[in-house]
Amino acid sequence: MGAILAPGLAGGLAISRLKHLALIALLTLPTAAQAQQVAAQPTAQLRQVAGTRVSLAPPPGFFPGTGFTGFLHPEGASIVVGEIPAASFRSLPKPGDFKRDEEVSPGKRALADGQQWTLEGGLTGTYAIVLNETVFPSLETHMLMVPAGDTMIFITANIPNGASIAPATMVAALRSVRIGTALTNEDKIAALDFTIGDRAGLRPSMVLAGSAVGLTDGPLDVDRGRTQPTVIVALEPEADSKSPESSGLTLFRRSFPDATVTTSVYDPASRRHTIRASGKDGGVSLNFIQVITYDSRSAIRTVCAWRPRIEFADRCLRVAHSASLRPRQSIKD
Question: 67 in helix, strand or coil?
C-alpha cells in the first residue's frame, strides 16, 4: 500500500475533495512484491471484501489481498475498498467533478466524464476513470464513490500500464458492487494485518482500506480545529529496513514539510526508529512523534500529532510500542 496519511487527514480533518482523491490514490497501490506473491485464481462469484461491508465479483485471476481490503492480481492490478466519514469532505464527489481530459488533482486527469450509477438496493454513486501519471508505471483507476449513511465508500479498480487486464472486466466488477450493513470500527480493526496491544485510553475514529487505523481522545471523529490528539497506525511498505533512519526521515518530511525534526534515533535492539518534531500542519501548531517498527515481513508506522498544550508523548509511545504484525501463514495458504 502507499504512504500513510498525515494525522490531520486520517483523523478526520475536513479537506478538499481533490486532495482526498489524491490521498485515496496513494492508498490504492499494492507493492510489486505483494503482486508477485499471489497465485492467479478464478474468482468471478460475488464475494464479500473482508473487513468491509462491500461485496463484489472480482475478475478472473484476482486473489484476496493482504495488508489492504480488496483483491490483487499477479500483474499488479488491484481492487481496493475504503471508507471515510462523509463529514470529512467539504463537498461530496459528484459526476460533474470529472470532465474528460481535465486534471482532477496534480498528475491525475479524467479519461471520461463522470457518471452517476444506481446500485442494487437504491444507493447512487459517482463513477469516474482517472489516469494517474505520478506513479510508474502509470495507473488507470476506475473509481466508484458511494455515500452510504454517514460514510463515503470508495472502490477503486486499478490497472497499471502494460497489464493485460481488460478495463471492461474492472467496470463489470464495480457494477457488481453490493453494500451491506455497516461494520463497527472494532470489526474493521479485527481484519487488519496488525494489532495494537495498548491503545492508551484512545478510541478508534477511522479504519482506512484495511491498512491504517486512526485513534483519538475526544468525542469528535471529524476534528476540524485539531483540538484532539490523533494517532495513526499503518502498514508502511515504503520504509527501508536497510537504512531505517534516512527512510524514516524521508517519510516524515514528505508528510509534514513544515515541521522541524528535533530528534531522530534508531534502536537496533527493538528495530524502532523514532522521530520527535514540532511545527505546523494545516496551519495549526502541533507536536509530532513518528515511530517505525521493523519486522521480517513489513514495517508498522505510527504517527502522533497533538497541540503543544497537551501532554501526550507517553500515550503515543505506548500505542506505537504495542503495535505488531499478526502471525499468519503464507499468503497462498
Answer: coil
Task: Determine contact, residues 126/94, Cβ cutoff 8 Å.
Answer: yes
Q: Is the peptide bond before 268 cis (omega within 30 degrees of 0)?
A: no
156 within 8 A of 143, measured Cβ to Cβ: yes
291 DSSP β-pair partners:
274, 302
Distant-in-sequence, close-in-space partners of 23: CB < 8 Å, separation ≥ 6: 5, 9
276-285: per-residue pLDDT in tens?
999 998 889 9
Q: Are 233 and 212 in contact (CB under 8 A)?
A: yes
Q: Which residues contact 67 (CB under 8 A, 6 or more apart)?
A: 1, 30, 34, 193, 210, 211, 235, 237, 298
Alpha-carbon separation of residue 217 from 82, 94, 131, 231 (angstroms): 23, 33, 38, 9
**pLDDT digit string, tens, across residues 173-201:** 999 999 998 888 898 998 888 999 999 99
Q: Which residues pair with 123 in a beta bridge?
A: none
**Which residues, in sequence order, are CB contacts of 329 under 8 Å at separation 6+?**
none
